[in-house]
Give the backbone structure.
Amino acid sequence: MNFQIKLVLFFIFSTSLVLLVASGNPLLAAWLTGSDQVTIPSLVESLIRSPGNFFGWQLSRASFLFPDAFVYLVFRFISGNRFFALIFSALPTLLIWQFLIYRQLTRNVSDVFLRIIWTLAIGLIGPWTVATLFPQLMDVVFKYQFTFANHFTIYVYAVLFAYLSAEHLFRPQQNGWIVSFGYAFLFLCAMSNRLIWMFYFAPLVVSTLAINIIAKKSFQDWKQSTRFLSVNFIVLYLALRFEEFQYRQNEMPYSFTVDKIISRLKMFIDFLYRQFSDPAIFCFFLFCLISLLLTVVWICKNTKPFQKKYLFLLCLVVGVFINIAAAIFAWEGDGSARYLMALFFTPILFLANLVPADLWKKGSAKYITYFIGVIALGILGFQTNKVFATGTVFLKPQRGMIEALSTCIYEQGLRRGLANYWFARSLQYMSLEKIWVSHLKPDLVRDQNLFFYWGNDLFSFQQLNDEGQAFDFVIADQLDPHILENSFGSPERKIQCEGRQIWIYPPPNRIFKGLIGPSTEIFERELRVKKKTFIPACIFKTSIETSANCELNLAFDNEDQGHQILYDFSMEFDPGVYLVEIKIQTTDVSILNSLKLQFRAEQSITVEEIPTGETSQNSYKIKIETSLRLGLTLWGRKSSTIIEGIQLKRIPQK
């Protein structure tokens, strides 16, 4: 086994050990198992069960599909354990991060052993130790480094692309297959997170132009740089356009008026003011700024002939300033600190360059590095022993809490419910889908449009899930009880499970009816994706009481008594031909002749009524290109009738 393979295996082992220890940190474990962080794992688990569900998911503007979802899938397949995959999916990103630090040491440090110690201490164990000693730093900064599916991942890959770009500009005669693979990788990353523009492309453009101007590059150099940047832009632009094929969060809500920019700048300054009141955070920010300034000074004083490392470092420095400016434009509060990855982590890359070469030659830096390495390994050993001794490793406290709660709910005969956003996804994922939970809006302040399907499968809000289960409970913690009662009515009973209040709601359709309300989005999406959908009768606008099975029970007392069952029910249709069937059960077949379905559209439509004898239900064939309103009226003849709902199917056209 050659040295390079041994070195890679060593870094894999040491990084895995740190991640295993990190899983025992209460603050990091709580973040790792929160609803935000388990969105991508939940997506993958959903696709493992049913790949077609992908088109029902609502993903954020940063979808994290690649590499995060892909890496999770690989680790899930290898281990067969979702919690193993949840913890170790950060491994590839951390390995690349350490590779970048290791490569920065090659300028001054010839001793490989010193490079290894420096890389582990500064790039991995040091940050972990600082974050462990100062939890406030873990909360604001370092929780991103030791978890995946956040902006630290795209930052690391952006730095990798910048490094490879600096290499490529000086060695344009690369293997075509390698270059093609690199652009394909860039495309996938850009498709999954737009921040690649801020972390990689914008700094690369500014740095390349600055270098070409300052160094008075030749026409051939300008031509080469322009060609390289143009190809990068085309790849990134195509990735941006490809987002239209994914279902994503709505477009950027940010408006760049002067007032908005000033408002966000004030929020950013207020954030810094409050953070600087904490000594640990103040020292960390001071370290970042000093490292940045020293790097700028080092670049300005570098009068040697231009080298590739110069472009890479300049790209990193420019990237920090662009990151700060862009983050201010998008600042929404304390949670926006997740956009400051370049400010937080680029200074760690600077450290290797800021240690003068003569210090390594004199041995001063060597002995300091040895000392740092011994301290770092000692702290890692202590932390490893601690998490195993206390039983906090491998997310055991969180798993135990969820297991106790899900068991309590399960023993009550409950299977599917609703909860606050910040807990629902975590409960379903951590309980291994023993309990199915969909989330309501995190800011539940009004009694309509309660369902909040960001980071969730829209189809999970259907009347019945894939297991045929209906909604039967709500976890009322952190939800407004008045809004819950206005929407779903009073629960049949309330119970306590592991300190959480559970509201039980049989019959099951009460929750579904109150949850969906006037919204048709679920049915529109299902019709668009699965080419068919069923609209249950219990959500129709009617004064008639629905049954536990979400049906309308009609009893006619008088001859030719009429009921208006459905009105002003509007849906958006893609252009095409559809089959509309009214699902009905009746003791009098002749009543079918009195069932009238009115179609009202924004534009003219073609309606063809299909004779009842050809189908078991009243059916219509319609051709439509716009939104459609439906109205349903039934005239009875002294018989009982059950309306189940309306089935819509798209008819393939030859």
Summary: Residues 364-390 form the longest helix (27 residues). The chain has a mean pLDDT of 83. Residues 597 and 632 are 5 Å apart (CA to CA).
